């Protein structure tokens, strides 16, 4: 890396590696954790690489996303010494052949564990939660009984949730099964330790406690295999993470104190949010001049049911943001990244409010909401992955891109698809017709027609769930929360199938990050010169977070512990994306009192805070 500055922490990591001792690197935002990780991996090429290659061993580096895996692999120039992979694909690759053990794990631990959890939620009464829990217990017990009829189990990116009797394992179950197998089957942990003398885990704070435990089991005892965790407990923003990851007994903790990203003004604010690491601005940004500014705007009492803003209120809140931006003199700063927890504001600005309200409204389960936010919802996936990219490539007249999309993303045009025996000329001709029809449908028909065409033409990997919705008669009855809560997905699908595609296209633009807007979760690992963070607890309509309570408990009341922790961490992640200038807009019921509270607690300086009149 140009301008790479070696640090004390890097030295300590090298010492651990040479002494074959496990370690955890704890570092704040912008510390260059990935740089330290890559440097440590590179050092192994020199010190232990030839021996490992001779003995058929490799180093495992686990990343949180596929994108991070690609970045690290590139920085290591695809050196075959390293297996750089997400946790899920690494684990599945290691356990998939042990089908008997997977079944045993499901039977003895995983399913009984899920059943016990659901039973805890059932007090025998008639509440919605109790009824739902009883339903889940029945389904799980049935799956347990019939487990032997499942020929084999599989896991894929397209199976976020388990369907045991179809043999589909979801993301969470995969982690539970793998950690169960590693901790209970000594032979498996020994084999893994022999194949891989070094394990590195990036973003360790988001690794589940079960997995940290399993990896520590592999790496317990003296000498190799050893494990190195790299992470920041303050940036644990996914609930399943362990946060305070630590290596097996006897391992070292290395604290990295530099911040190579942010200007000193931003680093001062970040330090006010935590006590475990006090950062010092380092490298060339230590001499940059940055700034921090907070504007407090009065929040409104929501007028709509479910504590939602009305259209007029949403409009007023958006106008307040424009006023704040104006006051900061950033109206012309088009490169400033705007981070919102308040997604309706983004959806409205970008033109997909009805889609947003559908996928976050009464027909959407928590699972559906999460999948919508990440672009993974099974109803949206065919459009996000195939239809919209095809429509875009087609409108640009980019035939090459159209053919590439068809051959890589669709079933029909893939190597094993129905056209694989046809001549190239014929395939091109079919591709043209299919694309023309599909794009035509997308712009003029309902979404249901588009998806149905994709399914009939074998363009999508249609999941069982999707096929079920396509084949069923639309629900004629009016949705009733009491009666239908377990079947709400039917109403979601029916409403979605009736919609037009234009909103989905805008949603895709947003997912592609081609806009100056992002959700606050979406920016993890990113950095921008200028950042605007908007906190509106009401508009976000989210009970998991409360920024007003976290920042100004005197004005808004004390947050619950979990709410406070989550909000503090998410705020920290957002603020720490700024390299130079950070601006925050906080909607609060009482801006004047909030101002004194914030400055009294020394989170912000008086000169940094102002009130929007
Ligand atoms: N040792 C170093 N010397 C100089 N610059 C560095 C060093 N390490 C990292 N940087 C630079 O600092 C910035 C932040 O690094 P990076 O994104 O790797 O940090 P991080 O710890 O992963 O941050 P976060 O956890 O906040 O996402 C990048 O621009 C990177 O190039």
Automatic annotation (TrEMBL):
GO molecular function terms here?
3'-5' DNA helicase activity; ATP binding; DNA binding; hydrolase activity
| Record's keyword terms, sorted | ATP-binding, Helicase, Hydrolase, Nucleotide-binding
Can you tell me which residues bind ATP?
Answer: 27-34
User: Residues in domain UvrD-like helicase ATP-binding?
Assistant: 6-276
GO terms for cellular component: cytosol
Biological process GO terms, please? recombinational repair
User: InterPro entries per the record?
Assistant: DNA_helicase_UvrD/REP, P-loop_NTPase, UvrD-like_ATP-bd
SUPFAM superfamilies referenced in this protein's UniProt entry, alphabetically: P-loop containing nucleoside triphosphate hydrolases (SSF52540)
Instruction: Give one Pfam family, short name only.
Output: AAA_19
Keyword hit for ATP-binding: yes
Gene3D superfamilies in the cross-refs:
P-loop containing nucleotide triphosphate hydrolases
In its UniProt entry, what is this protein called?
DNA helicase IV
Record organism = Symmachiella dynata
């Amino acid at each position: 890396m140009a301008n790479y500055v070696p640090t004390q922490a890097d030295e300590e990591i090298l010492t651990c590696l040479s002494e074959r001792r496990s370690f955890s690197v704890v570092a704040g935002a912008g510390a260059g954790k990935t740089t330290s990780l890559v440097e440590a991996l590179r050092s192994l090429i020199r010190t232990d690489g030839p021996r490992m290659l001779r003995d058929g061993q490799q180093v495992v580096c686990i990343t949180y996303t596929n994108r991070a895996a690609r970045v690290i692999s590139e920085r290591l120039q695809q050196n075959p010494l390293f297996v750089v992979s997400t946790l899920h694909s690494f684990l599945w690759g290691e356990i998939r052949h042990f089908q008997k053990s997977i079944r045993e794990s499901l039977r003895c631990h995983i399913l009984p564990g899920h059943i016990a959890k659901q039973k805890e939620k059932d007090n025998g009464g008639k509440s919605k939660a109790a009824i739902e829990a009883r339903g889940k217990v029945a389904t799980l017990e049935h799956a347990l009984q019939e487990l032997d009829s499942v020929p084999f189990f599989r896991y894929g990116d397209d199976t976020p949730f388990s369907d045991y009797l179809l043999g589909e394992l979801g993301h969470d179950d995969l982690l539970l099964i793998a950690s169960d197998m590693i901790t209970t089957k000594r032979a498996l942990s020994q084999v893994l330790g022999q194949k891989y003398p070094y394990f590195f885990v990036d973003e360790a704070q988001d690794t589940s406690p079960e997995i940290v435990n399993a990896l520590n089991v592999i790496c317990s005892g003296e000498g190799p295999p050893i494990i190195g965790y790299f992470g920041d407990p303050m940036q644990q923003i996914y609930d399943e993470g362990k946060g305070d990851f630590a290596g097996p007994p006897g391992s070292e903790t290395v604290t990295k104190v530099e911040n190579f990203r942010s200007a000193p003004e931003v680093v001062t604010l970040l330090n006010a949010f935590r006590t475990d690491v006090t950062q010092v601005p380092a490298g060339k940004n230590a001499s940059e001049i940055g700034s921090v500014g907070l504007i407090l705007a009065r929040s409104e009492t929501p007028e709509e049911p479910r504590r939602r803003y009305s259209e007029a209120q949403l409009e007023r809140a958006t106008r307040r943001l424009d006023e704040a931006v104006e006051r900061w003199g950033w109206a012309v700063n088009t490169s400033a990244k705007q981070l919102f927890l308040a997604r309706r504001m983004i959806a409205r600005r970008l033109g997909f409010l009805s889609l947003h309200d559908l996928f976050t409204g009464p027909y959407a389960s928590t699972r559906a909401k999460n999948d919508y936010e990440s672009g993974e919802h099974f109803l949206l996936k065919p459009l996000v992955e195939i239809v919209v990219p095809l429509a875009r490539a087609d409108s640009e007249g980019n035939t090459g891109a159209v053919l590439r999309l068809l051959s890589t993303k669709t079933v029909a045009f893939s190597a094993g698809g129905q056209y694989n025996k046809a001549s190239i000329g014929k395939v091109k001709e079919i591709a043209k017709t299919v694309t023309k029809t599909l794009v035509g449908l997308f712009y003029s028909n309902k979404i249901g027609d588009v998806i149905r065409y994709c399914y009939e033409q074998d363009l999508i990997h249609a999941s069982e769930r999707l096929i079920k919705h396509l084949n069923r008669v639309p629900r004629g009855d009016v949705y009733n929360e009491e009666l239908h809560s377990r079947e709400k997905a039917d109403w979601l699908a029916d409403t979605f199938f009736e919609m037009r595609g234009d909103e989905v296209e805008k949603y895709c633009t947003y997912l592609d990050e081609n806009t100056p807007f992002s959700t606050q979760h979406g920016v993890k690992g990113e950095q921008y010169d200028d950042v605007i963070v908007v906190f509106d607890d009401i508009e976000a309509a989210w009970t998991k977070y409360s920024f007003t309570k976290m920042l100004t408990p005197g004005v808004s009341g004390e947050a619950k512990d979990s709410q406070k922790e989550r909000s503090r961490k998410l705020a920290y992640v957002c603020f720490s994306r700024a390299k130079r200038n950070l601006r925050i807009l906080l909607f609060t019921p009482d801006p004047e009192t909030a101002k004194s509270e914030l400055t009294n607690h020394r989170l912000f300086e008086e000169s940094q805070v102002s009130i929007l009149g």
